[in-house]
Amino acid sequence: MKPLLILGAELDRTDTWIRYESNMCHSCASSCCTMPVEVRFNDLLRMGLVAEFERSEPRKGIAKRLQKEGIVERYNQKSEIFTLVRMANNDCLYLDRKTRLCTIYDKRPDTCRNHPKVGPRPGYCAFKPKT
Fold first, then answer.
1. CB 93 within 8 A of CB 99
2. What are the C-alpha distances in Å from 10 to residues 20, 25, 43, 57, 78?
3. Which terminus in the chain has less CB density within 10 A, N or C?
4. Contacts of 118 (CB under 8 A, 6+ apart)
């Protein structure tokens, strides 16, 4: 039986993901940028969405404000994790639609900085070639 050649990974099927190599990103359609992005307060601070003085503020209040602003989709009070809003096509709010590049790359959250070392299948990538 011949192995099945997968032309592009399916996000919901981690068995279709391929082992990550650093040279993959330049030819990928940024599929990782369509997955939910979980962030913490320090990420929001780096991204310029909260100020240092808000560190002592209740996270729930910060989450409400960011939800009203259309930046945060939900907040988990127990883990203190905020999930960023995605566009209708599931793209990250900060992904440029034309270039498929991150518009806040230098300020990106730790989740993005550490991908694919962390995530649903560490060391593997949901690679989809640019069309």
1. no
2. 15, 16, 27, 39, 30
3. N
4. 111
Long-range contact list for 66-72, CB < 8 A, 24+ apart? none
Contacts of 131 (CB under 8 A, 6+ apart): 29
pLDDT tens-digit readout, 65-74: 999 999 999 9
Nearest Cα to Cα of residue 100 among 34, 30, 11, 35: 30
Q: For residues 16 and 76, what is the distance between their CA atoms, to the nearest angstrom?
A: 29
Query: For the chain, what are the domain ranges?
Result: 14-35+90-131, 38-85
The helix/strand/coil state of 9 is coil
The pair of three-digit structure tokens given for residue 111, joined into one six-digit string? 């989740």
What is the pLDDT, as a whole number, of residue 6?
47
**Which secondary-structure segment (H or E) carries 68?**
helix 59-68
Closest CA to 32 of 81, 68, 86, 82: 86
